[in-house]
Design goal:
Elements: E1 2-7, H1 25-29, E2 35-38, H2 40-43, H3 48-56, E3 63-67, H4 70-73, H5 85-95, H6 97-101, E4 105-111, H7 120-133, E5 138-141, H8 153-163, E6 165-171, E7 191-196, H9 201-205, H10 213-217, H11 224-237, E8 243-248, H12 256-266
Parallel strand pairs: 1-2, 1-8, 2-3, 3-4, 4-5, 5-6, 6-7, 7-8
Length: 283
C-alpha cells in the first residue's frame, strides 16, 4: 500500500473551508490524506490530552508518523529539561501511548542533524535509542552525508536492517555534507518512509541562525517531470517493501498539499475510509 500525506496539518490553507478553527483542521485534513507527520512533537513532548484528541479526530484507518523530540536526536542546544536521557525517552514514550493503543502509530521518526556524523560514538547512540524505544517501529533519517559515503554506505544500510530501523529515504538539495543523496534501498520489508523536502539549494544552505531560514529552506514546488521521476522511484520501492509512507515537506509556499494531491493522481490512488468532506456553502 502507498500512503501519501504532508508534514503537519496547520499550514495547508488550500485544504480547509474558510474560517475553520485551528483545533478543527486535523478533522478536515483527514478527509484529504490517510497519513500525517506530527512535527509538534519535535519541539515539545506533547501532553496526552493532545494526542487523545488527534486520535479521536481521525478515522480508524488514519496513521501518524510522529517526529522524535529534539532532545532525543541532539538538535537541542544546551541542557535538556529532563533529569536524564532515560527520563526524556520515558516521557516521550508515555506521550505516544494513545497513538499506539489506537493502532494509529505508523512509526516514530528519528531525524538527526547535519552535525551527527558517521562515527563509532553515534553508532552506539543509535543502538541505545533503538533499545530504549523497545517494540515501537522507528524510522531513521540522516542529514550528514558521511553515512552514505562510499566508505560507509553499505555498512549504514546493513546496520539499519539488522537493528530494525526503517529507512527514511529523502529527496533534498545536494548541498554538501549537510545533505544526503536519495538512496533507494528499503531496510524493512514491511515499511519504508519517503520524505520530499524540495530542491531549494539556496534555502538549504541558508544559515539556521537567520530569522526566515526555515521558510526559505522548504520553499519549493515540484514540477511534473520531478514527480514523474518519483513515480518511477516508488514503483521500484514498491517491489521491495509492503507499505510506503510518502510525506511532502515543501510547506513554505503552500506547495506540499498540492504536490501530494498531484502525486496521488499520478499514481492512480484512491483511499477508502477518509473522513467525510466538509461542505463550504460559499465555494
Amino acid at each position: 500500500m502507498i500512503y501519501i500525506g504532508v508534514t503537519g496539518w496547520g499550514d495547508h490553507d488550500t485544504l480547509y473551508t474558510a474560517g475553520v478553527a485551528s483545533r478543527d483542521k486535523l478533522k478536515e485534513y483527514a478527509a484529504h490524506f490517510p497519513i500525517v507527520e506530527v512535527d509538534s512533537s519535535f519541539y515539545a513532548i506533547q501532553p496526552q490530552k493532545n494526542v487523545e484528541k488527534w486520535v479521536s479526530d481521525t478515522p480508524t484507518s488514519f496513521r501518524f508518523i510522529v517526529k522524535a523530540y529534539q532532545g532525543m536526536t541532539g538538535h537541542q542546544r544546551g541542557e535538556i529539561p529532563f533529569e536524564s536521557k532515560e527520563t526524556m525517552f520515558t516521557a516521550f514514550q508515555d506521550s505516544i501511548k494513545s497513538f499506539e493503543s489506537s493502532g494509529k502509530l505508523a512509526m516514530v521518526l528519528f531525524q538527526f542533524p547535519p552535525w551527527f556524523e558517521c562515527n563509532q560514538d553515534n553508532v552506539k547512540y543509535l543502538r541505545w535509542c533503538k533499545e530504549k524505544m523497545g517494540d515501537t517501529k522507528v524510522a531513521l533519517e540522516f542529514r550528514n552525508q558521511s553515512w552514505f559515503s562510499d566508505a560507509f554506505r553499505e555498512q549504514t544500510l546493513t546496520f539499519m536492517k539488522e537493528e530494525g530501523w526503517i529507512h527514511s529515504i529523502c529527496d533534498e538539495p545536494q548541498a554538501g555534507s549537510g545533505s544526503i543523496p536519495t538512496v533507494l534501498h528499503p531496510t524493512d520489508k514491511n515499511k519504508t518512509l519517503v520524505r520530499l523536502h524540495g530542491r531549494n539549494v539556496h534555502g538549504w544552505t541558508k544559515p539556521a541562525s537567520g530569522k526566515d531560514w526555515r521558510e526559505v529552506r522548504y520553499l519549493y514546488d515540484y514540477n511534473e517531470q520531478e514527480l514523474n521521476e518519483w513515480r518511477e522511484n516508488i514503483t521500484q520501492l514498491n517491489k521491495q517493501t509492503k507499505d510506503i509512507y510518502i510525506l511532502f515537506n515543501n510547506n513554505s509556499g503552500g506547495h506540499a498539499a498540492d504536490n501530494a494531491k498531484q502525486f496521488i493522481d499520478m499514481l492512480n490512488l484512491e483511499y477508502d475510509g477518509l473522513a467525510p468532506r466538509q461542505l463550504d456553502l460559499f465555494s
